[in-house]
Amino acid sequence: MTHAPRLPLAVGLPMAVASGLAIPVQGRINGALGARLGDGIAAAVVSFSTGLIVMIVVSLLAPRGRAGLARILPALRERRFPPYYALAGGIGAFFVFAQSFTVGLLGIALFTVATVTGQTLSGLLVDRLGIGPAGKKSVTGIRVIGCILTIAAVSWAVSPRFIGGAAGAAGAAGASDSASAAAADPAALLLPIILPVLAGFLMSFQQAMNGTATVHYGTPIAATLVNFIAGTCVLWVAWSIKVAVAGPANPLPGEWWYYLGGPMGCVFIGLGALLVRSLGVLVTGLGMIAGQLLGSLGLDLLAPTPGTVVEAATVLGTLLTLASIVVATLPWPRGAFRR
Question: Where do the TM regions start and end (predicted)?
Fold first, then answer.
């Protein structure tokens, strides 16, 4: 096992925020690819497959990547960590499933709030159980306050999009009787809301599992590679079933930028696996959430989609998210706010 030095908070937290910047960029690219292909699962397959190709190349060319490759099978054979940790990439595949099947009904705003709520709550739990490589971290009152502020801030930041999401859902409802029934019956929205909450909840476990694997592989390159192998296998199986039932999607586009979603995923999965050992799962997740909002705001300002308007609530909610992370990571006196 290779024990890399832990990063100080002043270094690790900005890295977590920076890694979160890649998430909305990936979402924009994969969303455009899904629309071009007419198949969200096919877009996810392309994204994971290109990410896997990138990680194979990096693993073979980089000295640390080759060293990590040599440690994967021994670590699994000797059960240095639970073998199912190698399947963490399946959680990423499940997240894509939840995104593909619920965003059209719930809208991106409600989907974001649901996933952030699940991820923030599970970050507390995973740290308390000590599943990640950072060990157990107490559930203090100030950390709980930071989580509540984060959920409130994200809800505020995306609130201007609720109107657009509701309009989109209403339009979809007018297109089919089943969607109309779902819109009319709030109980019909229970499953679509539970799916992104569960997907977000599992994301913290994925980060913890990848972080633990990174400690034993000696590099996040190997952990990210294994993550993409598992996720790609799951998505190829799901896509094969869909093709057998509904037929293939549209042909692949020729524009190169449609294939950048996978490399973006390599960035935030790899950095997440690296940072959880130093920051813990909760703080890593909060930093990435802040980066996600900052990246979304930057896209809306610099490369807006048609009809995009940046509201004051989006800017202020993003700033409140940053403040909530400061609250959650302040060095309070030992025993203060402890639950």
Answer: 41-62, 83-101, 107-126, 138-158, 187-205, 217-241, 256-276, 283-303, 309-332
Full-model pTM? 0.81
Q: Which long-range contacts (CB under 8 A, 24 or more apart) does 186-190 make?
A: 189/105, 189/106
Confidence check: pLDDT of 231 > 60: yes
Using alpha carbons, select from 46, 203, 234, 75 the residue that is nearest to residue 132. 203
Q: How far is CA 200 from CA 63, 94, 164, 203, in A?
A: 34, 10, 22, 5
Whether the pLDDT of residue 327 is over 70: the answer is yes
d(CA 276, CA 274): 6
Q: Are 116 and 162 in contact (CB under 8 A)?
A: no
Q: Considering its fold, how many domains does the chain have in total?
A: 1
258 within domain boundaries: yes
Tokens found for residue 248: 């293939």
* Torsion of the alpha carbons at 30, 34, 39 and 40, rounded to the nearest 10: 40
Question: Does 339 reside within a domain?
Answer: no
Angle at 83 between CA 82 and CA 84, to 5 degrees: 90
Beta partners for residue 140, in sequence order: 338
